[in-house]
Amino acid sequence: MQEMEEISSKEKNGVLILNKPIGMTSHDLVNIIRKFFNIKKVGHTGTLDPDAQGVMIVALGRATKFIRFFSDTNKTYHAQILFGNETDTYDISGKIMNKKEPTFSAASLKDSIGSFAGKIMQRPPIFSALKKDGRHYYEYARQGIQIDIPKREVEIFDIQLLDAKVPFSANIRIKCSSGTYIRSLCHDIGLSLGTYACMGKLERTAIGRFDVEQSFSISDLEKMNPEQRMEVLLPVDDFLSSYRTVQSNVRGDRFIKNGNKLFQWNALDHFDNYQDSELLKIYDSQYHFVGMGKYSQSDNFVYPIKMF
């Protein structure tokens, strides 16, 4: 990695769209970004398994405060399904638990994949970072402890068969809600076809509006100097597009910048069109993003929740 030059911490607040390579954990990627930008506070909006590659959104500095508000959460994936084996991890890296020779037709495969569109109930894999009683599922799995894993609702907005070598493998494209496990989806598709299946290759091609074409690889960042790296950071409010805004006037600036509530006479906007408890992006009189707030209809105030 290139020698780091000191950059004012005031400037290190933004969001990166990264392309995680195969073989690297999400934690590894965060540590690399810390070194590239010489900053401790780095967070991401969702993990990718070490064997997967693709888009990750990483926030730096004060932008990490707003990860929970990010509105671009739907994901798009390209996944490979391998038929015939069930593994304990639901992917090709796991231990084979069951085998069954696949015999389905191309028409059955297409029908099965299409049947998973819409809202479905899905059981996450035991080897996952979800928690039960304060412990990760994978901790129970590694100790051989059986636990009841409840199903939960996820939504598949679109699922398409890209190509297949019937009946041994298929490549699919999935656009889905946050929290969907593609490993579980591949496993369930196998069961619906009267056989077993596990996930092979996986690439996350997009998170919301941000796709792999907009992302930067570790190699890209290695070639940049510190100033160039700063230039690829995006403003945090780019990732809060689903929220409406409220803007203060000059008088109101001193209230919101101190974290105080904003009322209608201190704002450029009328509050009549806001819904009670609606989350809003707050901007100052110069239209600089200053944080997130919540509107209270009972007293006609916008209460700051998280300030930039």
TrEMBL record:
GO MF assignments: RNA binding; tRNA pseudouridine(55) synthase activity
The family this protein is said to belong to: Belongs to the pseudouridine synthase TruB family. Type 1 subfamily.
Domain tRNA pseudouridylate synthase B C-terminal residue range list: 183-240
Pfam families: TruB_C_2, TruB_N
Functional note: Responsible for synthesis of pseudouridine from uracil-55 in the psi GC loop of transfer RNAs.
Catalytic activity: uridine(55) in tRNA = pseudouridine(55) in tRNA
Alphabetical list of CDD domains matching this protein: PseudoU_synth_EcTruB
Name the UniProt record assigns to this protein: tRNA pseudouridine synthase B
PANTHER family the record matches: PSEUDOURIDYLATE SYNTHASE TRUB1, TRNA-PSEUDOURIDINE SYNTHASE
EC number: 5.4.99.25
Native source species: Pseudoramibacter porci
UniProt superkingdom: Bacteria
Record HAMAP family: TruB_bact
Record-level GO BP terms: mRNA pseudouridine synthesis; tRNA pseudouridine synthesis
Domain Pseudouridine synthase II N-terminal: 34-182
Alphabetized UniProt keyword annotations: Isomerase, tRNA processing
Active-site residues, Swiss-Prot/TrEMBL: D49
Origin organism lineage: Bacteria, Bacillati, Bacillota, Clostridia, Eubacteriales
Gene: truB
Keyword check for Cell inner membrane: no
